[in-house]
Amino acid sequence: MTGTQRDRLLEGLRDHGMAFAELGRHFGTRMGLHTTDANAIVEILSAEDRGAPLTQAALSHRVGLTPGATSSLLNRLEKAGHVIRVRDSADRRIVTLRATEGVEGMLASFFGPLIGHVDTMMARYSPEELAHAERFISDFVATMNGYIKEVARPDDR
To answer: Residue 16 belongs to what domain range?
Structure first.
């Protein structure tokens, strides 16, 4: 691989990050929320979709806020009816975050058309090509996360 090819790939990944952030801003505007609050909702829903609901501490880490700021954010989202806190059935000390059905509907309404566009775009690629792209992205994220661990200060972890 040449440096030029690496640079083009890195630029494409940066462009994806910027587009993803822009979508988050538009989603927040549509919901009448600050971008950070909208990003928190997306993080909570994504974790639910993966079957691993977030705790407040995990959300704090995901959105880059202090525990106190995350608590205020969750209070706002809970008051607005967007999020609920649920005690774990096995260990009542653990509280996880769940989005309400209304938020799930708003998310589906906003992002549903995009999913259709993405499905249309992906249909142009063979399963093998998509498998290569999936592996590349997975490896890239693992490399980035590894580097983050290298450079993170102990109080950042």
So the answer is: 9-100
Map residue 73 onto helix, strand or coil.
helix
Full-prediction pTM beyond 0.70? yes
Would you mind telling me the total number of residues written for the chain in this entry?
157
Q: Is residue 24 part of a domain?
A: yes
Task: Please state, in angstroms and rounded to a whole number, the distance separating the CA atoms of residues 154 and 77.
Answer: 30
- The domain tally of the chain equals 1
CATH of residue 21's domain is 1.10.10.10
Q: How many helices (H) and strands (E) does the chain have?
A: 6, 2
| pLDDT, tens digit, 9 for 90 and up, residues 26-54 | 999 988 898 899 999 989 999 998 999 99
C-alpha 13 chain-centroid distance: 15
Residue at 22 is within a domain? yes
Residue 98 CB: number of other CB atoms within 10 A? Answer: 17
